[in-house]
Design a protein that fits this description.
Layout: H1 3-6, E1 9-12, E2 26-29, H2 31-51, E3 59-60, E4 66-67, E5 89-97, H3 98-101, E6 104-113, E7 116-120, E8 130-133, E9 138-140, H4 143-149, E10 154-158, E11 163-168, H5 174-181, H6 183-200
Length: 201
Amino acid sequence: MSSGMASSWCMKNSDSSGSLSSDSDKLTPSSSVVSGLSKVMSNLDERKNNSMSFGSTHTVSSDGSGGADASYQLVTECEEIFPNPIVSKKGYINVFDQPHHRNRWSKCYVVIRRPYLFLYSNAKDTIERATINLCTARIECSDDQQQLLGVQNTFSIITPYKGYLIQSLEEKDVFDWLYALNPLLAGQIKSQLGNQKRSKS
């Protein structure tokens, strides 16, 4: 984390048993950054809600005819998907958890075994605190979002149920995480940055 970044955050120790980060430090944003974080999280929640919209409901009455007042009877189908035994990437990242940690970044240990991402409190934790199916998640990384936050090395993971704001601990690790999550997106971003550097030179 750069010196400019360190001036915007203060370190706090917190006992949060049962949460994503039981033994790790909490990073609390300064008041000037909370507004941007809240806007981004609200945007993630809005996109999550939009992805869960299935359109208008169609109804079926008891005689089999369609109507506007009855609803479908849904039958759930489950498919068991085993995670790949090969670990694509693992390590610590910061996860912004607005409702549970009161606008704080939680340092979590992440293991990517496609098609899943597993969140743990630390490297020795044996309990999966959260699981993200990368097949149904969308990865986003943009300069506009980072400028709004005032925080670098961030990207978003949007699932049908929740939005996650992620920050890598080192700038050099951003593309490694993006490549493990979405190789195509990482390649596109790296190509764009290369074009920008060549145009400035």
